[in-house]
């Protein structure tokens, strides 16, 4: 039995067919936020504020393209990794082996 994360399940599809995957991810995010509100309310508020900031950048009509060309898929992944880099620095998360990940100031 494989414990696949949401990212494992959806990132490839999201990069090629955003209009199919992102509504699903937004719906899933609501259940995860509900759980976070119970366990870590402060973090849930922070995550919701971040989501609002990001969603405001999308156009109101047709916010997700039907298909992304290969070049656009590459930009999608670059943005994904840039965002992860920023989040790791902000959250002071640990890597899979328990080591502290570097913050932006440490690099």
Characterize the structure shown.
With about 110 residues, this protein is mainly alpha-helical. About 65% of the residues lie in helices and about 0% in strands. It contains four helices and no strands. α1 packs antiparallel against α2 and α2 packs antiparallel against α3. The longest helix is centred in the first third of the chain and has 22 residues. The relative contact order is 0.09. The C terminus is likely disordered.
Write the layout of secondary structure elements.
Elements (H helix, E strand, L loop, with lengths): L5 H11 L1 H22 L1 H15 L14 H22 L16
Helix pairs in contact: 1-2, 2-3
Low-pLDDT segments: 101-107
Overall strand count = 0
Please indicate the percent range of residues in DSSP E strands (runs of 2 or more).
Answer: under 5%
Radius of gyration: 15 Å
Please tell me what the overall shape is: globular
Helix content: 55-70%
- Determine the mean pLDDT: 85
Structural class: mainly alpha
Distance from first to last alpha carbon: 37 Å
> What pattern of helices and strands is seen along the backbone?
HHHH
Helical segment count: 4
Sheet of most strands:
none
Q: What's a quick, concise take on this entry?
A:
With 107 residues, the protein is mainly alpha-helical. It is built from four helices and no strands.
């Amino acid at each position: 039995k494989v414990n696949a994360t949401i990212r494992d399940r959806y990132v490839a599809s999201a990069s090629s067919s955003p209009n199919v995957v992102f509504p699903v991810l937004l719906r899933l995010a609501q259940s995860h936020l509900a759980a976070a509100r119970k366990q870590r309310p402060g973090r849930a508020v922070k995550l919701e504020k971040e989501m609002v900031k990001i969603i405001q950048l999308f156009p109101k009509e047709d916010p997700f393209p039907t298909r992304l060309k290969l070049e656009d898929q590459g930009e999608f992944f670059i943005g994904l990794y840039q965002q992860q880099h920023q989040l790791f620095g902000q959250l002071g998360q640990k890597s899979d082996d328990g080591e502290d990940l570097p913050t932006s100031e440490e690099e």
